[in-house]
Amino acid sequence: xxxxxxxxxxxxxxxxxxxxxxxxxxxxxxxxxxxxxxxxxxxxxxxxxxxxxxxxxxxxxxxxxxxxxxxxxxxxxxxxxxxxxxxxxxxxxxxxxxxxxxxxxxxxxxxxxxxxxxxxxxxxxxxxxxxxxxxxxxxxxxxxxxxxxxxxxxxxxxxxxxxxxxxxxxxxxxxxxxxxxxxxxxxxxxxxxxxxxxxxxxxxxxxxxxxxxxxxxxxxxxxxxxxxxxxxxxxxxxxxxxxxxxxxxxxxxxxxxxxxxxxxxxxxxxxxxxxxxxxxxxxxxxxx
Length: 288
Hints:
Helices cover 40% and strands 18% of the residues. The chain has 288 residues and is of the alpha/beta class. The chain folds into two domains: 14-215, Vaccinia Virus protein VP39 (Rossmann fold); 225-287, Helicase, Ruva Protein, domain 3 (Orthogonal Bundle), CATH 1.10.8.100. A seven-stranded mixed beta sheet has the order 4-3-2-5-6-9-7, with helices on both faces. A two-stranded antiparallel ribbon has the order 1-8. The N and C termini lie far apart (60 Å). The model is unreliable at 1-7 (pLDDT under 50).
């Protein structure tokens, strides 16, 4: 492998993907958010946007039929793929199982229940997540990885368009919420491509987007993370209420005066930097 990115990368064609589904008698499961990418050019686009290098270690969650897995294996040093579905494990073993152990590791498990920090640390201290994520786990998974697995320094994920917009939303926008703030605390996130439903099997009713997330060396603000996220979570749980009402158990009117933040504002109108100021007000009292 020479790591050259100018030639077309190996992946499954649409015909090969359909053949695998027929051979194993697979009907994609809605409960697992299974929509398989069957367009090779989209797979290549994901790998190119990820900027994966020959020495990189890549984590793939929900590899499905292995289309993206094959392209990644050709590009990087090692891929660890985590798949929850029993039958898809059989397909992945057929598609990529001939790879040596140092090149490919297939894990049959629920990624949400694994200790990924320990699992990934066995091989490298620097990982990139590249994945077509099921919509039902995308947001909690990404937030958990940012909070708990600092070994993952970059993520390129394909998710439903509305999920992507929630992830990258800025203060004042309608999609701005707890996920937006949490992601902004740990990393820079941006939508780098939009993907039509036609590249998937079965074809979803919504568009998808590719989101690139790059972790900061240190969090964007210096507030106590536990207090910060508890405060934000409480506020967004009652997002229609003014801050002075939904946060009255944690903050007094004097706290708002000290920070210069209007207590009649609502959660969606407070920036990460303003959350930091409010958090520090609470932390000061705790320290006393």
